[in-house]
């Protein structure tokens, strides 16, 4: 592929003997891969799992289509294999408070959520509004329960979450050199000075992230670029200016240590890792894991409290009684616009924050009734729902297109969780032998 001359010269000087195989790798195809979703219950899933990825439990090489039941229902997430190591390195423990600061479209957030098993708090933030909408779609499809999804700049965020998180992931906006072979367009934005410009922004983001980290907490920093200015040199800058140490990262086949000589020579940079496309089965990536050495207490914050009116609460309870089994009853309720949400009581007061989702949408508040939310169908365990209806693959084609489906005329009227091959795909309302379609208009497609 055509690469900028300045880019080639730079890596010729940096890589020496490795240069030719590095450059040649840009003419190879990128690897496709996907992750299956550990948050979803067992179902009749059709995926080729014959090529597992060694460093992530649910990762496999192979291509998946966006127009399958598995994808629509959130049983699978398509992700480049190098990107799959980042959440594994972050290794959140269920119960942790985790911030994914640069989160869209949601590859790492969905991965983190799977590792957290819906325990603890995941805050996923994306600064660009359009991308934040895609982040919402992906987290909801994945069935993450009660994530807080924000559309903020790091500076505003740090005022609301002082010394709050156990772990923060900065998957930084970068010059994207590692994605050149996947996305040829990215070479057009590149110039000799671009990595240095990106580094300025990265330092600003890191500085705000550090304010939000609990003393003793961990910071995971990753990029998809080879540029030392955005990789080792950012970590060297953190070590020089803040109280942190690097933590070693396990290396799998083809992963190599970061290069101290590409920064200030600090040997601690050997704990960082680089994924080079001529050495590793994936695109270019850099990952560092840092531990805060500062002591002191985490700050107390004012938490969000429920705000649902007595009337809405009563309607929700009635809806639950009619439609859910006894053990499913979210009771931290927030009215937000026309929607009723379940939220995680650990979240701070949301005033002054641009909130995409305060938690999981439960339902639309209508006059004297609740209409269950699509996102709830993808997050709920089918055992918690009283009425479940199974449709076949042909009916699913019609469902995602927005059509109604004819069902047994004897079925009683009301809300049903719709499944296809035991995968939850939405809620529908049965009326006189017709299953009315509530699949969101914006998500509809033709198979
Ligand atoms: C590498 S991408 C994130 C990919 C994502 N973590 C995933 O795995 O799907 C970096 C993100 O940072 C966002 N970003 C850009 N400028 C930013 C800033 N100043 N602060 C925070 N995030 C920013 C971009 O919009 C982009 O979505």
Automatic annotation (TrEMBL):
S-adenosyl-L-methionine binds at residues 102-108, 126, 153, 171. It holds the Pfam family Methyltr_RsmF_N. It comes from Fructilactobacillus fructivorans. Belongs to the class I-like SAM-binding methyltransferase superfamily. RsmB/NOP family. GO terms for molecular function: RNA binding; RNA methyltransferase activity; S-adenosylmethionine-dependent methyltransferase activity. PROSITE patterns: NOL1_NOP2_SUN, SAM_MT_RSMB_NOP. The active site is at residue 224. Keywords: Cytoplasm, Methyltransferase, RNA-binding, S-adenosyl-L-methionine, Transferase. GO terms for biological process: RNA methylation; RNA processing. The keyword Nucleotide-binding does not apply. Residues 1-293 form the SAM-dependent MTase RsmB/NOP-type domain. This is tRNA and rRNA cytosine-C5-methylase.
